[in-house]
Input
Amino acid sequence: MSRIIAITNQKGGVGKTTTAINLAASLASLERKVLLIDLDPQGNATMGSGLDKAELLYSTCDVMLDQVALADTIISGLPCAYALAPTNADLTAAEVELTTLTDRECRLRNAIQSIRDQYDYILIDTPPSLNMLTLNALVAAEAVIVPMQCEYFALEGLSALMTTIEGVRSTLNPSLKIDGLLRTMFDGRNNLANDVSAQLDEHFGRLVYRAYIPRNVRLAEAPSYGLPVMHYDKGSRGARAYLALAQEVLAQEFHRPERTPPTALEQDLPAEPSLEETIEPDTSPKIADDGVLVFQLKQNEK
Ligand code: ATP
Ligand code: MG
Output
């Protein structure tokens, strides 16, 4: 049975796509069958996997609109050694259209069912927003990996993401969990990075991956060749770091350590709902003006 992992952080440019591509390639090099689903209209994972997003016959846009089966979009035999469900800017239109359709939060989950058994890992690259596409990824996934840069504002964004994940868990996908927070573009010479990293360890404990991804120019160069870094420069620090991450992800498969629940950054996170409050099972999330998904809490009638 495959494991479905969404790579998510609504903050832009934190290394989601770099993580999706290079974790997929590293897991494939460890002899796992991997599918990478590109669910970001930017199509960066598509291009970075060596496929021209301008020349797609079908894309995940068609899948989300129920026009094509996911299996028909999947491209295999790429040098990256994983299978890819590609996308392009058409997906932006799909995101708008989705809001009017039934079952809109479950489109991806339903689409994955028929191909699920063919892969050991299905990774989903998501856009830098907590929108309907990201919600589809969170509903389809069992686990979330949150790439984050160790900088001041990183912690601020984390509370909105945690709230969204908690909302999805309480309503549409009870089995969703955070597999780990991943430190990306890490520069150990930077005092702030070290401070934030220490704070992450303190507040989130074993929820933080031991592997961290250093800032490495090879990681930034590789997508322009349409290759994961391990196929571009196998000995680079970036390649070795993503291989270490893949090994940690595999280790979770065999031995799921009791991960310390987040102690929450008290000043950031909203208070726990009181006992009088529940999230109604059929409550659909709404998208607020700032693009953040909001789950409506309703008072229990007593
Ligand atoms: P978006 O939110 O726009 O989808 P993202 O979170 O997917 O962005 P990436 O596209 O993976 O982020 O990375 C942003 C930029 O930083 C890219 O140019 C990428 O090549 C570069 N980059 C990512 N990780 C590293 C790293 N560890 N070292 C150096 N450059 C990196
Ligand atoms: Mg991206």
In short: The chain has one domain: 3-267. Residues 152-170 form the longest helix (19 residues).
